[in-house]
From TrEMBL:
GO molecular function, one term: metal ion binding
Keywords: Iron, Metal-binding
UniProt-recorded name of the protein: Gamma-butyrobetaine hydroxylase-like N-terminal domain-containing protein
Pfam families xref list: GBBH-like_N
Keyword Kinase in annotation: no
Species of origin: Minwuia thermotolerans
Ranges for domain Gamma-butyrobetaine hydroxylase-like N-terminal: 17-101
Superkingdom, taxonomy of origin: Bacteria
Residues in the signal sequence: none
Length: 127
């Protein structure tokens, strides 16, 4: 999916988004030359939806068992985001360009914190 978008408060904008179903990744290229490859699992468990993030840090949900989840559809939302639809029925997360960029920039930190929290709660990435 090629994108023609306006600049959001000086943040880099995506120039292309590619769904790689075989690798279960979503690849996002930004205008500043940075590219990120997100696993479908990462995007599902870090969905910016109220279902996952809640309405504040204390309401954050740690979603286990999503290692095999897949993105089934990418739906543009205006000029600022995409809604990702997953094969487990989740479809309420609207991923803004700035959220995707931040997730890419902090991928390892975010992923490590998620995995540590699953371990702490006795939960598993496996289904």
């Amino acid at each position: 999916m090629s994108l023609d978008v306006y600049e959001e408060a000086g943040r880099p904008q995506p120039t292309e988004i590619r769904l790689n179903s075989a690798e279960r990744t979503l690849e996002v290229d930004f205008e500043n030359g940075r590219s990120f490859a997100f696993t479908h699992e990462f995007l599902r468990v870090e969905s910016p939806s109220a279902e996952v993030k809640g309405h504040g840090p204390s309401q954050r949900q740690y979603v286990p068992g999503k290692i095999g989840v897949a993105i089934t559809e990418i739906e543009p939302v205006g000029n600022y985001a995409v809604r990702l639809k997953f094969d487990d029925g989740h479809n309420t997360g609207i991923f803004s360009w700035s959220y995707l960029y931040e997730c890419g920039d902090r991928y390892e930190e975010i992923w490590d914190a998620y995995c540590e929290e699953l371990d702490r709660r006795g939960l598993s990435r496996e289904g």
